[in-house]
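Batch job 17 of 40 flagged for manual review because the log was empty.
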Amino acid sequence: MIRKTITLLFVFLMVSSIFMTAQTTNTSTLGFEPEQKSQVAETDLDRVTIDTNVLPNNGLEEWNTATNPQFFTTSRTVEKNRWLETTTVFEGSYSWGMYARAIDPAHYSEIYLTNQSQATWSNPTNLTLDFEWYLDSIGNPVDQDYFYLRIQMGGHYLFYYLGCENTGVSNSSYGDAFFMIDGATQTWNHHHRNLTSDFVEVFGVDPTTYQTMYWYVRSYTDTYARVFIDDVNLVNGTTIKYGPGVSGGDFEGGGGWTSSSPSDPADISQSSVRHEGDWSINMTAISNDYLARASVTARLDKRLSSINQGQLSFWWRIDDWINSTTNTLASMRVNAKNSTHSLNMYYYLCVGGAGTLPPVIGNDMKFQADSFNVTDTWNFFECNIWEDYNTYSTTDDLWIEDIYISVSANSEDSLLSVLIDEMSFTASIMNDMGYETQTGVGTPIHGWFDPETNEDGYTVTDFASSGTKAGNITLEDDDDFSYERELGNIEINGTTELIFDFNVYIETFNDTSEDFIFFEFQFGDGEALTYVIANASSEFESWSAEEDNFIILQDTVVTDDWLNFQLDLVHDYELIVGSLPDTTLDQIHLAALASKTNKLTAFLDDVYIYYDPAPGITNVGHGSASPLTGQIVTISATVVDATLETVVLNYRLDNATWMTQAMFQLGDFPFGSNFANLPDGTNVEYYIIATDAFGKSTDAMNGTDFFSFTVVATPQGFPLLPIVAVGVVLVIGVVIVLYMFVFKKKE
């Protein structure tokens, strides 16, 4: 945090009337004399905001499509089934039935059939396939809904589209073969092909092997694609692979056919029924006797601790619930782990039937949410994951990988529809922070990777800038590392004052090598910004995402001293890219290299990304309430801000016109004004305005009033300062004490 102590010196010199002659005139002079001094200032964490909603979708308002919330992984079961059919059969007692129906074109449904016996044949010289097929219904048989057979032979695939057409494919001698087979619906059709001949026709050589055979039904529409298959005969010369009584070719028994598991439909979509904003997530599961499940997953990769516990919250609503059995339920699962334990934490919003929570496996934990099973109203869910985990196992090192919310139904004619809105997970933006809650000295730093990962390039040390722990980077002899982590897609634009703040101590660095250390930020618009902490060549550029998008923090690498850097991500982005950001801050990378025969040793401490507020002005004062002429009066104030640009004194004399004087940050810049006839009793009022690079400003007032004092004449006999002019001279000197950085882009 940049801390500036602003000092204003008022010197009041008044000549007593007994020293004045007839030629004396009363004059007043106001002068400003800035002076710059350097002062290292610690970051005031009580002033800044180090945490934010790190869930990568602000309030669930961001959607790629109406069925795809941005930054979430979605999963939904689709409607598909298979069975032994007893009514629609070609001969005997059974045929094989299958159907599929899509939720929408973006979420198709597919089911397959194959035989468990898929032994490879070599040199199939006269391989023929016969079977009966019945296309009961199909939505759009051209380029949307398909019933097809896929056979793998000799490293190629042969596709046979039955009663449908795929116009987007074509034969290729080095790829696959495609055959469009006509056939009427709702009647039995006979399929006969010499597979060997078809292979030779397209690829020009004999097949060396027969490998696999699958039937598929795929639907992109909301109409059932339903088919039946009977009497499968696969024969190579006189050898029968499938046929009546052989591997169940007639589906009458004795064969091991396998297919996709049946499931019922579930969906995820935008809903205008919301608690706030424009949208909520609607998760609906509809069961006709098979499992229907919709789920959304948010990847977090957050490290929690006693000082960064993580607060998860959202609003939820049971919008519809039909046939409320124990198999209809909604829950949230949090995957949590540390170096010794890994478990799932289940938070149940609703469970049908008697409301009994399902059993857990192993060390998993379960919790019942407030407003459990309450329908048709918005309910608020909130939990402290770190506290909940510590009811099982006390830890100060907890890694949250992801959050998974699911809605499921698995009973005949059951439906469950749940809305989720305003979901947030509040935690520190950076996992590192002060490193004080890391594990023992010498262990891997947790926060850049999964705690189960045994990484030794970045470890805990007791050599710290503050506190008792920091991070140690020790690499030597052509060793390197590159770690990255998600930041939660944080919004960043011209008004978000995001500051990257860290301390670094470089102990060993060869300034004639290719060694380097850098942080790199990646943004949602594809841009990158690299801060090079130390380098001796341009080798680091080959490691960064954008070779030209970097800022060198040290032209000459400082060793054996702790350095603090406070970096304005917004305006550094503008410096590199040429415009202010209007995107998201997605990832941070940490990379380092020690080239051949070299060693690099560095330490990092107090690594934060935070939001900096408007400048803080404190400790405003002017000493004596009634200064005497001839005395020095000091007006002082402490101004704190990471991007401070100006500090302005506003003052007036005897309720006259307000005047301003800027206190510049760099260089000597004198200012002067003359005031005539300034007698004792003059009242001086003032206040201070500080403004940062984002246009945020703070006025320092004395409550609701201005700061003020009144000049009092010096009593006779009171020692005066030497006087070189006759009259009253008011001199204001300004001393600015500041700590700031000046960076430049490496050419």
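Reviewer: the log was empty due to a logging misconfiguration, but the result itself is present. The CA atoms of residues 199 and 207 lie 7 Å apart. Unflagging and moving on to job 18.
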